Amino acid sequence: MAVKKRHLAVRIIGVTAHRSTLKKALKRQAIDSGTLDVRKSVLDTDMVILATPVDKILSTLEIIKPYLKKGCIVIDVASVKGVIVRAAERITGRNAYFVGAHPMAGLEQRGIDKADCDLFKNVPCILTPTSRTNTKALRAIFNFWKAMDSKVYILSPSEHDRHVSNISHLPHIVASTLSLSARPSSLKFASGGFKDTTRIASSDLELWIPILMSNRKNIILDLEDYLNGLKDIRNSIAHGDKVKLKKLLWRAKRKRDMLDS
Amino acid sequence: MAVKKRHLAVRIIGVTAHRSTLKKALKRQAIDSGTLDVRKSVLDTDMVILATPVDKILSTLEIIKPYLKKGCIVIDVASVKGVIVRAAERITGRNAYFVGAHPMAGLEQRGIDKADCDLFKNVPCILTPTSRTNTKALRAIFNFWKAMDSKVYILSPSEHDRHVSNISHLPHIVASTLSLSARPSSLKFASGGFKDTTRIASSDLELWIPILMSNRKNIILDLEDYLNGLKDIRNSIAHGDKVKLKKLLWRAKRKRDMLDS
User: Fold this and answer.
1) pLDDT in tens, B48-99
2) Domain residue ranges of chain B, discontinuous segments joined by +
3) Which residue in B has a C-alpha nearest to residue A252's C-alpha?
4) Which residues of A touch B183 (CB under 8 A)?
5) pLDDT number for residue A237
6) Do A191 and B220 touch (CB under 8 A)?
């Protein structure tokens, strides 16, 4: 829908596992045509977007590889890059081009009903080229995401994984743990603060478990930092140390105030 | 503004520390008249709402006590009750009536510019009577918050403090710690998930430090639970235990899915 609105493609072919999803996508005019056969779908296309869960990207790429048109550009949109990009480049070979992409947008809810043609507007989209990435393909994908109104950044796969561990994967764990520790008897008093802080705990587990498992080295390091911060705050409260608590909360507030709502 | 919209008072008198705030409040028609003198403000009023930070409630009550009209009902709106209610009842004496109230609404931003006459609509409001609370006064305040469109609950002060520790004070600490552990270099990639999860880290410290300090016993217990949950998730990731991770995240998701957005 975002591509259509911006007239970035002549024809969009949707591939899904269920016919009902295809019907919905056609009805919302998100796609021009659809198929359940991933091989057929790529036969004459200039660009392929792999939008599967992390643990299905490489196997899907293996399946479509023999059917890719010469010069076709393949991108993914996954939230981890280290385990994906180099392997994907190897699988794609020389006939087609792979470029790793991560548009940092999404909702805690899934499905075409929740689709939004401005989902990618003003959000970061990180591209993760390597020394093997074709420069023309990279430039084309850079321009594609610019045209989608995203803020495009270029990082190495490992830099990408360090950053998203910190500001995407860690928040996910924190939100889920908070939901986990809510007592059922207290939950009826939950208001805006609790709801905001736990919103992403509702996200699709099929997507998130492979993400967290694939980026575990960075996540474990970030969790150590987070645990230390939490212990600092706990100790300042336990000891009644208002000065220390104020210093810590002030640093937290100042950092958050720099972002928009 | 919420009281005015619902025609629940004949006349509303605002008390602030700064003349500029009074001017703004008059301009937005939030109050009918205003004063900087807290003593004068209560002279002929039937109901007083103490909406100061937690650590100023009792001292403000001491100041106004000699000026309260016979039969006046005084309420607070603080986020902790144990340290407030019994002391407030003692100070108020027999001439006037104190009822502890906690409307669970608020924004991370302060000031009249952010005021909203529907802030209390559909949010929980907890009243915390004790054996000393006057029954008629309690009924009047119950009806008042009902008329404000809040969902009114009645709990003891200590029950209240246990619940809000779990679903309000703990989220506050979690959100602040997450903001604290965001690396400056990663912050530019922050998108919806990070922003939601850290939103309340921007809240007013003048309000929150006394809240956290006053409810520290409950908070320390809830933090222990939270830390244990976090360690469970960390270990399942570190050991690549997908089954365990899925079980934990699923419980978190199911709980969050029960709440609206």
Assistant:
1) 999 999 999 999 999 999 999 999 999 999 999 999 999 999 999 999 999 9
2) 2-158, 160-257
3) B180
4) 163, 166-167
5) 98
6) no
Residues in chain A where the model's pLDDT stays below 50: none
Q: What is the pTM of this model?
A: 0.91
| Residue A130, both tokens | 């390597």
Structure tokens at A194: 């609790």
Contact residues for B131 (Cβ-Cβ < 8 A; gap 6+): none
**Both structure tokens of B114:** 């952010």
**Chain A residues with CB inside 8 Å of B255's CB?**
179-180, 182, 184, 187, 201
Nearest-CB residue to A226 (from B170, B177, B191): B177
Cβ A202 vs Cβ B256: under 8 Å: yes
pLDDT at B259 over 90: yes
Q: What is the pLDDT of residue A41?
A: 95
Asked if A213 reaches chain B (Cβ–Cβ under 8 Å), the answer is yes
Q: Are B12 and B31 in contact (CB under 8 A)?
A: yes
For residue B223, the chain A residues in CB contact (below 8 A) are 230, 234
- For residues A175 and A199, is the Cβ–Cβ distance under 8 A? yes
B160-257 carries CATH number 3.40.50.360: no
B135, two tokens: 């029954």
pLDDT value at position B110? 79
d(CA A26, CA B21): 55
For the record, the structure tokens of A27 come out as 């009805």
Span A2-156 CATH architecture: 3-Layer(aba) Sandwich (3.40)
State the nearest Cα–Cα gap between B68 and chain A, in angstroms: 32
Predicted confidence at residue B190, as pLDDT, reads 93
Place of tokens 């709440």: B259
Q: Which of A191, A233, A250 sits opposite B177 (nearest CB)?
A: A233
ipTM: 0.90
CATH code for the domain defined by B2-158: 3.40.50.720
Is 80 exceeded by the pLDDT of residue B109? no
- Check if A6 contacts B (Cβ < 8 Å): no
State whether residue A248 is helix, strand or coil.
helix
Please give, rounded to a whole number of angstroms, the shortest distance from the CA of B6 to a CA of chain A.
Answer: 22
